[in-house]
Amino acid sequence: MKRSAALLEILMILAIIGQSSWAALPGSYCKEMGSSTYRPHSVSVTEFGAVGDGITLNTKAFQNAIFYLHSFADKGGAQLFVPAGKWLTGSFSLISHLTLSLDKDAVIIGSMDSSDWPVIDPLPSYGRGRELPGGRHQSLIHGSNLTDVIITGGNGTIDGQGCVWWDWFNNHTLNYTRPHLIELMYSKGVVITNLTFINSPFWAIHPVYCSQVLVQNVTILAPPDSPNTDGIDPDSSDNLRLVLLSFLIIISCKEHEVFLSRDHAALASILAIEF
Predict the structure, then answer these.
(1) What one-character-per-residue DSSP string does 127-151 give?
(2) Domain limits at 183?
(3) Is residue 207 part of a domain?
(4) Going by C-beta distance under 8 Å and a sequence separation of 6 or more, which residues neighbour residue 17?
(5) 183 phi and psi, to 5 degrees?
């Protein structure tokens, strides 16, 4: 009941924030954001040595594949395909004009070794880690200063294996703030769609300092006792559309800083929220 009441309060805040700006946005905006983008170049992560056995660490394979695809950014962009399998990896960073596409039976699995999640600087508007002083672990799928990025699939899965992070948090043994599953910073033209996110170490999806973001047809799951595993936390961003979302956990309910934190820029517009 408390979760439901807190969720309702957050949605009311979002509705008030977004109401004044809806009319000013172009009518074709949402249609353009939702349309598929053809990529003339495509590779599979297996071409770079990835093994989908759930045991082999594939961080280098993801990094090398994305480095290779960077050469196609000015040629219509490229797609990195993740086929069926269980793909264990640490954090990796995306590039502009890229589609990361998961097969319906693909599972990207976050490593349970914290050293596979690099420590990066705090966000400027935070001035410190969200949970602890100092830096924070980089998200599993990360990006900064990007344009035209799509993360999608046939309802493939991204699994953060958050249980170890939750234990470290509850036992007060963390040195840095926990990572998200996806964090994109200073980016424009972002689409996250047709995916399932489970067991995030911290917040599942965190667009920050972004614009023109569409999150559609996603499912986000975490146990009821998992700490602060918020679903989607748009932060200091504008022109967002959140559509057809399914949550087991959406907010932490311990505080109301999920969408508007102190020292953060307000969200300029939320186009729609549909569940």
Answers:
(1) SS-SSSSS-EEPPSEEEES-EEEEE
(2) 2-19+41-268
(3) yes
(4) 266, 267, 269, 270
(5) -135, 120
Contact 211, 188 (CB under 8 A): yes
Residue 26 lies in a domain: no
Write the pLDDT tens digit of every residue in 186-231: 999 999 999 999 999 999 999 999 999 999 999 999 998 999 998 8
* Straight-line distance from the first to the last Cα atom of the chain, in angstroms, rounded to the nearest whole number: 18
Q: Answer whether residue 175 shows pLDDT above 70.
A: yes
In this structure, what CATH number is given to the domain that contains residue 208? 2.160.20.10
Domain count of the fold of the chain? 1
> Cα separation of 67 and 84, whole Å?
22
- The first and second tokens of residue 117, run together, are 């999640």
Q: Please check whether residue 75 lies inside any domain of the structure.
A: yes
- Give the residue among 79, 97, 216 at the shortest CA–CA distance from 147: 97
Is beta strand 98-102 parallel, antiparallel or unpaired with respect to 205-208? Answer: unpaired
Cα–Cα distance between 73 and 77 in angstroms, integer?
4
Six token digits for residue 241: 């559309």
Q: Is the dihedral of CA 114, 115, 118, 122 positive or negative?
A: positive
Distances (CA, A) of 39 to 42, 97, 141, 155, 160: 7, 8, 20, 20, 28
Residue 59's φ and ψ, nearest 5 degrees, are -55, -50
